[in-house]
Design brief:
The complex is a heterodimer of chains A (251) and B (542). With 251 residues, chain A is of the alpha/beta class. Chain A is built from 6 helices and 12 strands. A 9-stranded mixed beta sheet of chain A has the order 9-8-7-10-6-1-4-5-12, with helices on both faces. A two-stranded antiparallel sheet of chain A has the order 2-3. In chain A, strand 4, helix 2 and strand 5 form a beta-alpha-beta unit. The longest helix of chain A has 15 residues. The N and C termini of chain A lie far apart (66 Å). With 542 residues, chain B is an alpha+beta fold. Chain B is built from 18 helices and 20 strands. The chains are: A alpha/beta (251), B alpha+beta (542). Strand 11 of chain A pairs antiparallel with strand 17 of chain B. Chain A: Heterodimer of an alpha and a beta subunit. Chain A: Its main location: mitochondrion. Chain A: One of its GO terms (cellular component) is mitochondrion.
């Protein structure tokens, strides 16, 4: 069985985000970029499944401009066997990504599609669900535990939902999106980093897959949230009462 | 550390112990009643405090140093207090016990003074007035910044007046073109780093204490830290200082010029003088630009020679982007994995003898990765390392750093620790560690780590409890060994109180004599940070 993992290159989790002065978006020039943390977890899970002998191959997939190949190299260094890069502009919406992923699934025919639950740059949490809908595959989102039964071709997924943990049984092929507590991604060790240089990254363009980017959404403005006002130290109880009454208007 | 006050025989005699010195042991039983022992927070490290001094307690790395409070220093009077309140206002004069308790105790909780007064000036003028007055009254003074020093240099030995720079924390100016930052001495390092971050620059030094330490203190102790390999010491990056001398003279050497060869460059006297020649009130410092591409890799080596070869290769292949080269040995890694939470071994399958952490900082991500990959490939092919990982994002990089930076904490959790900070020729560095292991055998665990790139070894001997016999095996052997190999007994921590009488292991007597001459010239009454840095025998008034 083949496993496909979709990964995204985002601004590094630990970087302090700044909005561009022209308010058109977030500053990404000269800022450290790396693999989306949830995608890392997804790839790690795929690798573990393969190491258990339940899959034959892990294919890492990414949709974006040319720098995205660097993130794919990281995925190969972690242990993925092959990679696919779909050349596309950045900041595409999840519906388009979902369509692209469907087209790739039709080509590669994997038994499992892993994704991170959301990307930390736009926090949309839509791609996994949309691609499952397009493929008409069952989906197990926010997975915190995945157990595969190869014979029965079934995946048992523990989901982290608001009320607690929900356990679902999915028939394969299925889409699983990963949540934080699923696993701790491995470091990329040097021997694997060196091996990764010779692993193939196949390139596709949007025309190859017959996808058109038609966006009915336009970003008008991006601003920072209003800064929290600092607290004020009052000098007496009378002043406190005065402020509560007249400024905060709570008494 | 336990303070033992010997009443009534010798008034104001203080004994600084790790364990009782040979001299005092016979007397301890007799003077039991007279002894007033102070329970120290560090003693709660699971050690039971008993009345007799022979019980286990917090240890430091030097033998007992008997210091007597100088009789020529005055004590605070009510006139002094009103004078200070006059110049500083009520807010600038602190006598509240709780606050004083904290500022009298050093960061490692080894040393505790009994100062009854802390002053908080807001301008250099106020510092000048304070010192002029204290000089005329023979009141000893301890300049204090963030109080994060590790050798007891920032807290009073007795009842010296603490002059805190914390309220002088303004950033005066920053010039993007010349990249010179001018600020007051009380600015916390982390705040300066945040300020510069918004401008696209960084501070040329970085240390674990950055959340509390102040730039004035960093300058006065010539702090080293993690970036020394890349940006050099503060002697190079500090362009100017404003210093207040013991007699109140305000010395304005606050230049922002990169080059100025007019006369003797006096600021270097104050950088590293640990507050004993003057109080630094303003600093002007050159700041490097912030570089976006940071790469961290964590490598495993089978022996020390491989670590050295890696260092040479790194300098040659990635030299211009190299920003840190740290090492730790097998015992250090073992300790960290055992005692620290949330630490992951990058090589879960096996333990290696040595680990090296390399960090590079550059302006072009792909170019840097290419260079780093080439260096790593070459090193692997030539068998310089047995394994390695490259951090793929900032979180992984922090985890790698956490292993290295968490060693001191792990040591404290493991029980007692004897700490040594030594500069030794790099090829010989590990020989000392191996000799110590032979000397101590199974009685203690010898842990070594440090700034390999700077030739700075942090030798730590970990024991479940403090033990006189173990200390006797360590000192003075460690100092003598270092001295024999022409190393330094204090690479970056300074002398402070802890090593005040140990300077002769590293500096010649003529050099130390000249230091004493300079000290007497700049501070004839010896009021600035007394009992520290230089041996007291050289500074007695004639």
């Amino acid at each position: 069985m083949k496993i496909m993992v979709a990964i995204k290159r985002v601004v590094d989790y630990a970087v302090k985000i700044r909005v561009k002065p022209d308010k058109s978006g977030v500053e990404t020039k000269n800022v450290k970029m790396s693999m989306n943390p949830f995608c890392e977890i997804a790839l790690e899970e795929a690798l573990r499944v393969k190491e258990l002998g339940l899959a034959s191959e892990v294919v890492a997939v990414s949709v974006g401009p040319s720098q995205f190949t660097e993130t794919l190299r990281t995925g190969l260094a972690m242990g993925a066997d092959r990679a696919i890069h779909v050349e596309a502009p950045e900041n595409i919406y999840p519906i388009t990504i979902a369509k692209i992923l469907k087209a790739l699934v039709d080509v590669e025919k994997p038994g499992l599609l892993f994704l991170g639950k959301q990307a930390i740059d736009n926090d949309q949490n839509q791609t996994g669900q949309m691609v499952a809908g397009l493929l008409k595959w069952p989906q197990g989102t926010f997975a915190s535990k995945v157990v595969l039964d190869k014979e029965k071709q079934v995946a048992t997924v523990d989901r982290e939902v608001d009320g607690g943990i929900e356990t679902l049984c999915l028939n394969l092929p299925a889409v699983i999106t990963t949540d934080l507590r699923l696993n701790q991604p491995r470091y990329a060790t040097l021997p694997n980093i060196m091996k990764a240089k010779s692993k193939p990254i196949k390139k596709f363009t949007l025309q190859d897959l017959n996808i058109e980017i038609k966006s009915d959404l336009e970003v008008v403005e991006v601003t920072e949230p209003p800064k929290r006002k600092s607290g004020v130290i009052v000098s007496s109880v009378d002043e406190l009462i005065d402020k509560l009454k007249n400024e905060a208007r709570v008494i | 550390m336990r303070r033992i006050m010997v009443t009534p025989h010798k008034q104001g005699c203080r004994y600084y112990f790790n364990q009782p010195s040979v001299l005092i042991k016979p007397y301890i039983g007799n003077f039991q009643q007279a002894f007033q022992t102070f329970k120290h927070p560090s003693v709660s490290l699971g050690m039971h405090q008993r009345n007799r001094c022979r019980s286990q307690y917090r240890c430091f790395a030097s033998q007992a140093t008997i210091i007597q409070r100088r009789s020529d220093f005055s004590t605070i009077s009510s006139e002094d207090l009103s004078y200070f309140k006059n110049i500083l206002g009520e807010r600038g004069v602190v006598q509240d016990e709780e606050t004083l308790d904290a500022v009298n105790t050093d960061w490692m909780r080894k040393y505790k003074g009994t100062s009854k007064l802390m002053l908080q000036p807001r301008t250099a003028e106020e510092v000048s007035q304070i010192l002029k007055y204290c000089n005329s009254r023979s009141l000893a003074v301890v300049p204090q910044g963030g109080n994060t020093g590790l050798v007891g240099g920032s807290v009073p030995a007795f009842d010296e007046v603490i002059v805190s720079l914390s309220h002088m924390s303004k950033i005066i100016s920053f010039d993007k073109v010349s990249s010179v930052l001018v600020c007051e001495a009380g600015c916390i390092l982390e705040n300066l780093i945040t300020f510069l971050d918004n401008q696209g620059f960084i501070m040329p030094l970085d240390l674990g204490a950055k959340g509390s330490c102040q730039i004035g203190g960093n300058v006065s102790t010539n702090a080293g830290g993690l970036r020394l390999l890349r940006y050099g010491s503060l002697h190079g990056s500090v362009l100017g200082l404003e210093v207040v001398l013991a007699n109140g003279t305000v010395l304005d050497m606050l230049s922002t010029l990169r080059k100025d060869n007019t006369g003797y460059d006096l600021k270097h006297l104050f950088i590293g003088s640990e507050g004993s020649l003057g109080i630094v009130t303003k600093v002007s410092i050159l700041t490097p630009p912030k570089l976006s591409s940071v790469n961290v890799c964590f490598l495993a080596c089978k022996d020390y020679e491989s670590c050295l070869k890696l260092l040479l290769e790194a300098r040659r292949k990635v030299g211009e982007i190299l920003s840190a080269f740290e090492f730790l040995d097998h015992d250090a890694m073992d300790l960290v994995l055992k005692h620290l939470e949330g630490v992951r071994n990058p090589f879960p399958s096996s333990m290696h003898n040595f680990y090296v952490l390399i960090e590079t900082m550059g302006s072009n991500e792909s170019y840097d990765r290419e260079k780093l990959d080439a260096f790593l490939l070459h090193s692997m092919e030539n068998d310089l390392m047995s394994d390695g990982v490259v951090a793929q994002d900032i979180t992984q990089a922090s985890s790698c750093w956490h292993i290295r930076e968490g060693i001191p904490e792990a040591l404290m959790k493991a029980g007692g620790v004897y700490k040594y900070d030594l500069s030794i020729p790099v090829e010989k560095m590990y020989d000392l560690v191996e000799e110590m292991r032979v000397r101590l055998d199974a009685s203690a665990k010898v842990v070594a780590y440090g700034h390999l790139g700077d030739g700075n070894l942090h030798l730590n001997i970990s024991t479940p409890q403090y033990d006189d016999n173990i200390l006797a095996q360590i000192e003075p052997f460690v100092y003598e060994w270092t001295s024999k190999h022409k190393g330094s007994i204090s690479a970056e921590h300074g002398l402070g109180l802890m090593k005040a009488n140990k300077i002769h292991y590293t500096k010649s007597s003529e050099t130390v004599q000249l230091m004493a001459t300079i000290k007497k010239q700049l501070d004839p009454n010896g009021i600035l940070n007394p009992y520290k840095v230089l041996p007291s025998s050289l500074l007695t008034k004639n």
